[in-house]
Amino acid sequence: MREDRNTKPAILAALAMIGIYAVQFVAARFSLREHLTATDLATLRFAGAGMVMLLVVWRNGRATGKALGWRRALTLAALAGLPYPIIINWGLTYAPAAHGAALCPASIVFFSFVLSRIATREKTSRQRTIGVAAIIAGLILFIAPVRTGGGMKDVLFGDLLFVGSGAMFATYAVLVRRWRVVPVAATATVVLLSCVPLPLLYFFAPSGLRAASVAEIASQIVIQGFLAGAAAMFLYTYIVRQLGSQAPSLFMPCVPIATVLIAMTVLGETPTGAQFAAVLIMAAGMAFSALSRPVPKPA
């Protein structure tokens, strides 16, 4: 009964996280094609998330940050804080939204699987291993149409940035699990530390904020900041605490499915037939892994 009480809220949290990430990728790609830069979106993300987290710190006091310590706080902020969305948004300037939505989650799955076994020595069932293998096969199939030459080199560069961001966030998830970090403390600390260098980005980084409309800026603050920057990070950390460092990553392959559908409608970006098949393979691998039973601990 205790496991059910932990599992059901975590699954609902995962569904909400999937929706947020799907909208985030499409919204970011839309503004990057119009006016805003990668650093603009990162600034808006943490400006919006910072507003939310200031209220949390105001309510909980300085104990929120003290619970982690400076070394751990800075490590988590470097992995899931300001550099993380900048790398993703940089990739979105070169590659379609569906690529980011496919490669980021798939990379998180792979690196979470590897790092969990190395760092935390978590036992993995054969079924989950097969599921992860299917996800990686789908990942390879997805990027297979990318050829060298012309604009395809730019797309490949963007894809590599997505893979790198996945490695960063997977490391964050493993450390959250290993250090037994409280979700609110992790989210608030990462967000507020990421807000510190924002004035430097605003004054010195290339920006298109002046060309963007108030509505576009406000919508990105809500989507990138309130939802992706604060809510999604809290949900991810909560799922890690409830189900383990690998569990949330197994839901992430659902993100490309939702993103592809939204991107086709909003952006007019249609993946190839092979990429559609790759998305389905990754989703099947996620389902197969999520349904696997945990390996019992030795008595």
- The Cα radius of gyration reads 19 Å
Question: pLDDT average, as an integer?
Answer: 81
Oligomer: single chain
Largest sheet: none
Query: What is the helix tally?
Result: 14
Estimated helix fraction: over 70%
Could you explain how this protein is built, in words?
This protein has helices spanning 2-34, 38-60, 63-66, 70-80, 83-92, 97-120, 126-143, 151-179, 183-195, 198-204, 214-243, 247-251, 254-266, 273-290. Helix content is 80%, strand content 0%. With 299 residues, the protein is mainly alpha-helical. Helix 1 (2-34) runs parallel beside helix 13 (254-266) and helix 6 (97-120) packs parallel to helix 8 (151-179). The chain contains 14 helices and no strands. The longest helix has 33 residues, at 2-34.
SSE order and pairing:
Elements: H1 2-34, H2 38-60, H3 63-66, H4 70-80, H5 83-92, H6 97-120, H7 126-143, H8 151-179, H9 183-195, H10 198-204, H11 214-243, H12 247-251, H13 254-266, H14 273-290
